[in-house]
Amino acid sequence: MMQITSTVSPHNLHKFQAIRCPSFTFRCHQHQQASSSSSSLKQPPSQTASTRLHLANLDKLLETQKPLVQHHQPINNNNNNNNNNNINDQKKGRTFLEGLNLGRLWPEIKPTDEMSPRHLKNLQRLLSKTAEYSPRNILGSRWREYHGSDDWKGMLDPLDENLRREVVRYGEFVQAAYQAFHSDPAMSPEQPPHPRHVSLPDRSYRVTKSLYATSSIGMPKWVDDVAPDLGWMTQRSSWVGYVAVCDDRREIARMGRRDIVISLRGTSTCLEWAENLRAHLVDMPDHDSKSRTQGKPKVECGFMSLYKTRGAHVPSLAESVVEEVRRLIQVYRGEELSITVTGHSLGATLALLVADEISSCDEEAPPVAVFSFGGPRVGNKAFGERLRWKKVKVLRIVNSQDVITRVPGMLVSEELEQKMRKVGGGVLEDRTPLAYSHVGAELVVDTKMSPYLKPDADMACCHDLEAYLHLVDGFLASNCPFRSNAKRSLARLMQDQSSNVKKLYISKAKALTVNLTRHPSFSISNCLPSPS
Q1: DSSP labels, 485-524
Q2: What is the three-class DSSP state of 31?
Q3: Helical H runs in 40-110?
Q4: Are strands 436-437 and 379-380 parallel, antiparallel or unpaired?
Q5: Which residues are catalytic?
Q6: Are 215 and 307 in contact (CB under 8 A)?
Q7: E strands of 363-484, at which residues?
Q8: Cis preceding-peptide flag for 158 (omega within 30 of 0)
Q9: Mean pLDDT lowest among 32-41, 116-125, 143-152, 293-302
Q10: What is the mean pLDDT of the chain?
Q11: Where are the residues of the annotated region Disordered (predicted)?
Q12: pTM of the model as a whole
């Protein structure tokens, strides 16, 4: 049991109220009032004895917790016996100090490499091959709120529990897109693509359409001559995602509507990388002058190229996704529908272009929402205004340590761009990359919040999709520590990001003889950080 020296002042107890974690401050206040009322019934002890009594009670409560983060080294105290007299009720601590990290209160207390049997059991659960989630709550009549009808106001910080699950669920649809692509990345330049199997994480959905993206970049003749030797890395068209629809009646009832999902993976081929580097802005080809935007909506040239270019044997991404959405709207006309577009990295940028077009592809188009992970900037401010005018709701999940989310225009902040617009008479030249702007609401997570990842995790880890889902699963609020009951499996992180996981957990995983080799059911979520 942790002990504190008698030199700690009773006023240190007020530090618990400084942690602004939801519901925590109130509990601490209740405990303080209870302590005050009970002490008034008897002779007040000395200051040193009172301090020992309070800290002993806190130790008693902390001992009942099951933290996944760390244990603390005991500090020598010559009066240890006085701190062991009042340990009776272990159940109160489960709610009173849930999720508390004493390292934030007393920095001098260092974590130890020793883990109790309870810690090892929890770690073994997190290293299991399947994540353990609580039952899904019924969204019912509130589904529009969770789909962004009010831009997720009041739901992001602290993070609503139902929204957390929805965000993770849509992220897993993107993982399925990565897995399907990496299992068979090649496409024949002479023949139409063959049917592709997608292993969906949610069996209540079924895939209805495969989606392809094609690059328009002209390759030198010598590259075409040696293309057969380079394989799929030089192919112009690549499988980029899929359309799926919920077909399970119970899941439709739980969600409050039939959901159509469009899932898009991130950068994975050389030509996609090359398109990412084409960072100059181009006009939207079908801008509606009635959209009331200030200036012309523009987007990054490379993203528009991948979205609009037709392949030799496949339609463009724009053509295929609009055709399929129109078909599904016709099939399920009269039902309550929603369209959710989700993507990571490059897929996050294409998701915005898809959402922009499908939101107006039918007179009775259902509500459209975008859940994007680690997405760079896509267009200028007028493009964002265009999406808002079309009532497209966008939730950007952003790791504050992920530099990809700050490009193009990474060297100039949005605040500086706004100042430059004012200095220039309210107009910033559209052809400069400084005109890029983000759109939508933000859910900001941070690699440094995870007790399992190193605070100096590298760029690949900060941009990795599985790392994103791990951070979302553990996020409570920006002013709270990682939630202690996060249940997402750690094995997925250790498979691909072992160099970024703290050695303590790597060593314990090996000690537990947990098999961390890649399992066929694991989604391949890795995507090398795109330069734009």
Answers
A1: T--S-SHHHHHH-GGGB-HHHHHHHHHTT---SPPTTS--
A2: helix
A3: 47-63, 93-96
A4: antiparallel
A5: 345, 402, 463
A6: no
A7: 368-373, 379-380, 393-399, 436-437, 441-445
A8: yes
A9: 32-41
A10: 76
A11: 72-91
A12: 0.72
